[in-house]
Design brief:
This protein has 279 residues and is of the alpha/beta class. The chain has helices at residues 13-29, 53-58, 65-69, 79-89, 100-105, 123-130, 144-151, 171-186, 201-212, 249-264; strands at residues 37-40, 47-49, 96-98, 113-117, 137-140, 159-163, 191-198, 219-225, 237-243, 270-277. The N and C termini lie far apart (37 Å). The mean pLDDT is 94.
Length: 279
């Protein structure tokens, strides 16, 4: 299925948590001069216009990035994430929101590179247009997991893989576990960040159980919820499962998540940072 369009959801609470974690991981990789690769399995279009009718139709960004944007005092560790947004907007007015490729592009240095994969026939040309003539960015119109398998191990031996499929089908949770199984065999030292939505908690529990069964150590779970779990339709929370997380990530998110909860969902929100599999 290729019906999912992120333009309806850009800048929502799930994007906020995903891109903050992504930004912190990339910042940690920059602490060494050696080059790294950023590999994105489901890239989208790169940037999103929050004044577009699709964004306005759902208004999800108003309960996400807009609430963070309006805060007077913010944790220092999310400044890099906010700077990536400010770069697109040329000021204080929030119109454009960066997808994960744009968040990454704001972080990488001349010695680093990006690999982006987008299969959607409408989104792929927009992604190519966004990074036209950018020699540090390679873009593929392929299945994201197949391209990942073909690209590992990277020549740099350092880097981040962001895995964030739309989860339109239940099998995609199993596909993520299989992709990690295949990737980790090829590149055990890479950082893998898996985004997940909480629509049906059982799907997340099954995916975590599958990851635990792979025998991989150092798996951290980070989650931000805006409402209690429910049997009704709709995403109540989302999170990131990070394999080989930077050593500071746990403490950084332990400080950031209370701020996000108060900014986005002060009454009904919840959060957690815990090890699925410790070191």
């Amino acid at each position: 299925m290729l019906s999912y369009r992120h333009s309806f959801h850009a800048g929502n609470h799930a994007d906020v948590i995903k891109h903050i974690v992504q930004s912190l991981i990339l910042d940690s990789l920059k602490q060494k001069d050696k080059p790294f690769v950023y590999h994105d399995t489901h890239s989208g279009v790169g940037r999103y216009d929050l004044t577009h009718e699709w964004s306005e139709k759902t208004g999800e960004y108003k309960q996400g990035i807009a609430r963070v944007w309006d805060q007077k005092e913010i944790p220092a560790d999310i400044q890099g994430y906010l700077d990536a947004i400010k770069t697109l907007n040329n000021g204080d007015n929030l119109r454009y929101y960066p997808g994960s490729p744009r968040v990454a592009r704001a972080q990488i240095r001349p010695q680093d590179r990006m690999v982006l994969t987008e299969l959607h026939p409408a989104d792929h040309p927009l992604l190519e247009q966004e990074f036209h003539r950018d020699h540090q960015v390679a873009i593929y119109k392929e299945d994201g997991f197949k391209r990942l398998k073909a690209s590992l191990p990277p020549q740099e031996r350092r880097g981040l893989v962001l895995i964030d499929p739309p989860y339109e089908l239940a099998k995609e949770y199993r596909d993520v576990v299989q992709a990690i199984f295949q990737s980790y065999k090829r590149w055990a030292t890479g950082i893998y960040a898996i985004w997940y939505p909480v629509v049906n908690r059982c799907d997340i529990e099954d995916m975590i159980e599958g990851l635990e069964g792979l025998g991989i150590r150092k798996i951290l779970q980070i989650e931000l919820g805006v409402a209690p779990d429910t049997n009704e339709r709709g995403m109540t929370a989302s999170g990131m499962i990070v394999i080989n997380p930077p050593w500071k990530l746990e403490s950084q998110m332990s400080e950031i998540l209370p701020f996000l909860k108060e900014a986005i969902a002060p009454v009904t929100g919840h959060f957690k940072v815990e090890w699925i599999v410790p070191e």
